[in-house]
Design goal:
alpha+beta; 23 strands; hydrolase; 6-stranded antiparallel sheet
């Protein structure tokens, strides 16, 4: 039997790599007797290594060959498993802290190119006019086609103040767009909060970081100090790519009764089968309890959660938990569907592999992977249509994605994005449109959430083809519906 190796588990869609990170403690345990090594294939690998060293046109370093071999082997599994060299490992640790040096975009691979999932608010890319759905075809005039997503990300990283030139292809435009972008240290503000109307609060989480729970406590305290009788709270998780798992558990716990099951994981190894509850040991095992400072009103205030195709991983965990307990109404469009756990397995002091080891499940046992969270009320991004969401790539669209439960091989996501008419309408709307300011006066989905609180008509998605008249708002229960514990969970 192999030795147990302590490691830190990671999950999500990350700030720039399209993979967000969550931290958990895990151990590597082998299942039964180790499989025999495939000696014939290993001999072939050694033969290829030897041929390259002896016959290739120029000398190649051993380290480069072996690193690329490891990277290719891991990358062949799924879009979120990756080999982290020294630089990537360092950058990953920086992103967990909510800062990194780059242009400020969340990306995924599509047809060999780098697709913009979302520009980070107030980043160089955002200010340059780069939009979700754009494709990066060249970086500093080097074609992206053929590069791995991680190699493309490395080319966009650099020193603060340095420039990188991106060639952008945008649907609906005949010619590519070349834009120079100056790299900056990106500090992602985790939580924003304000009163959008008298008695109605808006709390936005842009990414789940180490400081998220502290920020949530501080900003909601300020809201309740100024407005003790808040009638409704909108938790905005749109374009939130995920982040730290403890943050997702803590945010869910902030609005739910204590000790409730928040999320479960299932995988091949015993340590991959875990249940996470609304207890401090899961969201803040060290230091002071950040939730101790939360206003008591957060447990009972009527809630709406806004999600869209850019809501992934940790944000889907929160939306799924609040939806399962009927603590909040989920509104918007279907989320990204990133419901797999990545565990960090160190290879040395400064390299590691990030390996997919489990799937996430909501409290009622719904699998998030490839499915995402389906809103209770589908509401388009604009009054004219779903805007960027009609163009977004989702987990189910990624090559080699981990299949969701009951997903048929080669299945295609069936939603409004499959409609050519919807896509053309979205392109026409986006061509001359400024980036949407979430929480601003022109935020259509936010306006529909406010209408629902007030008992006014809500304009649902075109696919629904009906208008919903919301009842007079009532206190949304936080404890009436308690899902059963998953098999094997411990409490």
């Amino acid at each position: 039997m192999g030795n147990k190796v302590k490691s830190m588990g990671l999950v999500g869609l990350g700030v720039v790599a399209g993979v967000a990170l969550t931290v958990q403690v895990s151990a590597w345990a082998q299942k039964g007797e180790p499989s025999p090594l495939p000696l014939d294939e290993l001999r072939q690998l050694a033969d290829v290594f030897g041929l390259i060293k002896s016959d290739y046109v120029v000398p190649v370093e051993d380290k480069k060959l072996l690193s690329e071999a490891i990277g290719g082997m891991v990358a062949s599994l799924d879009p979120h498993s990756v080999y982290l060299d020294q630089k990537a490992y360092r950058e990953m640790r920086e992103s967990v802290q909510g800062k990194f040096v780059g242009v400020g975009i969340e990306v995924a691979a599509e047809d060999g190119y780098v697709k913009i999932v979302s520009p980070i608010e107030d980043s160089p890319a955002y200010r340059a006019g780069i939009k979700a759905g754009d494709l990066i075809t060249r970086i500093d005039n080097v074609p992206v086609k053929g590069l791995s997503i991680d190699d493309a990300i490395k080319k966009m990283r650099g020193k603060p103040g340095s420039k990188v030139t991106l060639t952008i292809a945008r649907r609906g435009d005949d010619r590519p767009w070349v834009v120079p972008v100056t790299r900056e240290e990106i500090r992602v503000l985790s939580v924003k909060a304000k009163m959008v109307e008298p008695d109605y609060a808006w709390v936005r989480i842009s990414q789940f970081q180490e400081a998220t729970l502290e920020e949530l406590a501080t900003k909601t305290q300020a809201l309740y100090a100024a407005n003790p009788n808040i009638k409704g709270l909108i938790l905005d998780l749109r374009n939130d790519p995920g982040g730290l798992l403890p943050g997702a558990i803590g945010v869910s716990t902030a609005f739910l009764p204590k000790e409730e099951l928040i999320v479960s994981t299932k995988g091949q190894l015993p340590d991959s089968n875990q249940s996470y509850y609304g207890r401090r040991e899961f969201y803040a095992p060290r230091g002071a309890d950040p939730l101790a400072k939360l206003p008591a009103g957060l447990k009972t205030v009527p809630m709406i959660v806004l999600v869209n195709g850019g809501s992934a991983s940790a944000s889907e965990i929160v939306a799924g938990a609040l939806q399962d307990y009927k603590r909040a109404i989920v509104m918007g469009s279907q989320s990204f569907g990133k419901g797999s756990v990545q565990t960090l397995r160190p290879l040395s002091s400064d390299t590691a592999i990030k390996l997919t080891t489990a799937r996430y499940y909501t409290p009622k046992g719904r699998a998030i992977q490839a499915n995402g969270i389906v809103p209770d009320m589908a509401v388009d991004e604009t009054a004219e249509g779903d805007g960027l969401n009609a163009l977004r790539v989702r987990e189910v669209d990624l090559q080699r994605h981990l299949a969701g439960e009951n997903e048929k091989p080669g299945a295609v996501a069936k939603d409004a994005r499959d409609s050519a008419e919807q896509r053309q309408r979205a392109l026409a709307l986006l061509k001359n449109r400024k980036p949407l300011e979430l929480g601003g006066k022109d935020d259509f989905q936010l306006a529909q959430a406010l209408n629902h609180f007030k008992g006014l008509p809500v304009k649902v998605a075109r696919a629904e083809a009906v208008e919903v008249i919301s009842p007079e708002p009532k206190q949304l229960p936080g404890t009436e519906t308690k899902p059963p514990e998953l098999k094997g969970s411990k409490k």
